[in-house]
Amino acid sequence: MIGEAAAIGALREALRAGLDPDAGPPRSVVPVRHGQLLLMPAEWGRYTGVKVASVAPRNPARGLARIQGQYLLLDGETLAPLAVLDGVALTNVRTAAVSAVAVDALAAPGPARLLVFGTGPQARSHVAALRVVRPVVDVVIVGRDPGRAGRFAAEVGGRVGTADDVRDADLVACCTTAREPLFDGALLRPHATVVAVGSHEPDVREVDDETVRRSTVVVESVATALREAGDVVQAVAAGACDPAELVGLAAVVRGEAAVSPEAPRLFKSVGMAWEDLVVAAAEYEEGE
Asked: Where is the signal peptide (predicted)?
């Protein structure tokens, strides 16, 4: 799979070139006994593609990835298959790369202290991707399992902390399967940038109403966020967020939307099919 910098560049350039995150069909989610089946089709430029993925919440306890799947990349005109890619590797790379595109557009420039919630594949991918767009000078890991958190912290040259370390963080990456908020949004620094990538379900959230209330909220697609992003859906229901004030990532990347430097910024990602397609196409073209 292509590296973080290449994936970040491909996604940024696609948005600048006019890709519309709202134009694609919605994700199909089918509940099954042990999780979910996902179908994620998209088309852009010369390519069409579809990811068939599964989400099995009990897999990590078995030593398996929570998300499984394959990606089929097709020629956009003939719809002939071009490549089959590892859906797990693709998901890990593109999710963190989208977060990095958002952070690069939203976060204050210069050295940053990074707080990461989670110790799984997405947490690792986010540390690597965010280091591409900002000079990270300190990494703090917060995890449910102290042993795993310690090993991960050592792996990335960081240290283990607690949720209260949000007080000192410039960047906060929420990469967990948590169903309830991970930290108190009142503790966020005014210039902090938060990314939350943990779920695509309206009844699940990683950040609280206070985080949303205080922040400029940026999403991949406003319609998709109001349907799938629990962090947004629940804050809207509580009166902490006005849907009319949600900002699309494309508008931020293109310089069409201004973001206040005096309030925290929250990027809530649910993961969309266009992201898989753009990164899969970049991977395919690199191998040509």
From this structure: none
pLDDT, residue 64, reads 87
> How would you classify the pairing of strands 35-44 and 47-55?
antiparallel
Beta bridge partners of residue 40, listed in sequence order:
51
**What would the pLDDT profile of 98-147 be if each residue is shown by its tens digit?**
999 999 999 999 999 999 999 999 999 999 999 999 999 999 999 999 99
Phi, psi of 147 (to 5 degrees): -65, -45
Choose which CATH entry (3.30.60.50, 3.30.360.10, 3.40.50.1010, 3.30.1780.10) describes domain 4-90+274-287. Answer: 3.30.1780.10
10-44, pLDDT tens digit by residue? 999 999 999 999 998 999 999 999 999 999 999 99
Backbone phi and psi for residue 150, each to the nearest 5 degrees, phi listed first: -65, -40
Question: 3-state DSSP call for residue 215?
Answer: coil
Arch. (CATH architecture) of 92-272: 3-Layer(aba) Sandwich (3.40)
Q: Are 116 and 197 in contact (CB under 8 A)?
A: no
DSSP 271: -
Name the β-bridge partners of 27. none
The overall pTM is greater than 0.90: yes
89's tokens: 């590797």
In the chain, where the domains are located: 4-90+274-287, 92-272
Q: Which positions ≥6 away from 265 have C-beta within 8 Å?
A: 106, 107, 192, 193, 194, 215, 216, 218, 259
Residues ≥6 apart with Cβ < 8 Å to 131: none
Order of all β-strands in the sheet with 193-196: 159-160, 136-142, 112-117, 171-174, 193-196, 265-268, 216-219, 247-248
